[in-house]
Amino acid sequence: MAFVIALLIVLAGLIAVFQLSEGRSEKGKFIVWGIITMIVFAPFLSFLIGVTFGMMARNGWAISMMMFLSPVIFVIGLIILLLGIYKSNEEEHK
């Protein structure tokens, strides 16, 4: 059941990020994608990948892969967010 709930949260995050980034500038899209990646995708996607890998490997310690995936995905989201914050608008320079 937890697997289904996590999958639904990730799918809802995907729908939300596409809805929120629609009609925004490239800078705004980077900011929205970075925030959603850090808040939604990092914990729940790492849970989904870790549990799936743990069930396939039939090893409880394989689920500890979540401890490594969550910070990696969070840092990727942070980089995307920082790219959006420090990206200069091309419209400002014209």
Summarize the structure.
With 94 residues, this protein is mostly helical. 83% of the residues lie in helices and 0% in strands.
Number of helices: 4
Order of helices and strands: HHHH
Distance between the termini: 53 Å
Strand portion: under 5%
Overall residue-averaged pLDDT value: 89
Rg calc: 16 Å
Briefly note the structural class of the backbone. Answer: mainly alpha
Q: Report the biggest beta sheet as strand number plus sense, adding barrel if it closes.
A: none
Question: What would the keywords be for this entry?
Answer:
single chain, 94 residues, mainly alpha, 4 helices, 83% helix, 0% strand
Which helices and strands, and how do they pair?
Blueprint: H1 2-21, H2 26-57, H3 65-86, H4 90-93
Helix pairs in contact: 1-2, 2-3
Structural notes for this entry:
- This protein is mostly helical and 94 residues long.
- It contains four helices and no strands.
- Helix 2 runs antiparallel to helix 3.
- The longest helix has 32 residues.
- The termini are far apart.
- The relative contact order is 0.17.
